[in-house]
């Protein structure tokens, strides 16, 4: 069986041919992560196993505040569309992790939950 996926980038600098012209402000990061999330959702929906948690590790890259907001909104939408119970992501950028519902703060061998 062969699956085919089409990529359509919609935005002010998007051009025909997928993601060309997306070099600024972390746009390539957003498009790359959208593709990864789409594949994770597809796999989850076409698998015999139900996945409760979607994990993302340092996928935010160097996003500006506007794209950081879009990134977190995209994770929330992926959780909804993929019917995941939760999304756990690791991010070093405050613009990203400050938007989380809860933050696991790891420091000096201790972990605390901050909301």
Give an overview in words.
The protein is built from three helices and four strands; from the N terminus they run αβαβαββ. The longest helix is centred in the first third of the chain and has 19 residues, at 27-45. α1 runs parallel beside α2. The termini are far apart. With 115 residues, the protein is α+β, with helices and mostly antiparallel strands.
Structural class by sheet pairing and helices: alpha+beta
Number of helices: 3
Could you give the order of strands across the largest sheet? 1-2
As an assembly, this protein is single chain
State the share of residues found in helices, binned by percent. Answer: 25-40%
The main pleated sheet reads as: 2 strands, parallel
Shape, per Cα inertia axes: globular
First and last CA, distance = 45 Å
Instruction: Report strand %.
Output: 15-25%
Topology order in helix (H) and strand (E) letters: HEHEHEE
What is the averaged pLDDT score? 83
Number of strands: 4
Instruction: Detail the poorly predicted runs.
Output: none
Radius of gyration: 16 Å
Question: Could you write a compact summary of the structure shown?
Answer:
By secondary structure, this protein is of the alpha+beta class.
Defining traits:
115 residues, two-stranded antiparallel ribbon, 3 helices
């Amino acid at each position: 069986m062969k699956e085919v996926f089409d990529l359509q980038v919609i935005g002010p600098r998007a051009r025909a041919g997928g993601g060309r012209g997306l070099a600024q402000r972390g746009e390539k990061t957003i498009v790359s992560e959208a593709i990864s999330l789409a594949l994770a959702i597809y796999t989850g929906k076409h698998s015999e196993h139900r996945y409760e948690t979607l994990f993302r590790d340092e996928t935010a890259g160097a996003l500006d505040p506007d794209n950081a907001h879009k990134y977190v909104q995209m994770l929330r939408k992926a959780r909804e569309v993929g019917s995941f119970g939760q999304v756990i992501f690791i991010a070093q950028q405050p613009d990203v992790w400050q938007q989380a519902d809860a933050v696991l703060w790891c420091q000096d061998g201790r972990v605390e939950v901050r909301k």
